[in-house]
Amino acid sequence: MLNYNLPRYLPSADELPDSDETPVDNELQELIPGLLKAILLILWAERMDWFFGIDMGIYYHPEKAPIVPDGFLSLGVERFYDEELRPSYVLWDENVVPTLVLEVVSKKYRKEYSTKLEEYQDLGVLYYIIYSSRRRRKPRLEVHKLVNGKYELHSGHPVWMPEIGLGIGCEKGN
Question: What does the CA dihedral 44, 50, 55, 61 come to, rounded to 10 degrees?
Fold first, then answer.
């Protein structure tokens, strides 16, 4: 868990906004995380110890705005919070930092390769994945793994993530 001083009063997920109200500007920002979640629902249909959030706020401090990735995976948490489902992901309630975070680069650059990378690194997210369909000379898919507190770019196709038991890569197809 994070090392920081929290205020005495900690709001619950129900008391915090569930969206940053920022509309997506790229269909892939909805399609790719949705596809990953659908794959996990098939592969891990019997498992109830994981959660995949799409465009959902991750609250790490009650007095700061949440970080809202396009998608994230947490292992070791209840898949279903209650019948209302999760309105947001609150670290002081869940006690589990997401294992994987996905950002799909939009038409308007939102600091996926700088500020967001540093934020996820500081939170302790093990894998930070960035996908950009617009890249031509650099890889479209980057998988960063947290090693000794810093992200290292991993190569390969697919990139195997042993802590999760899955790999991730890019394929073209219908």
Answer: -170
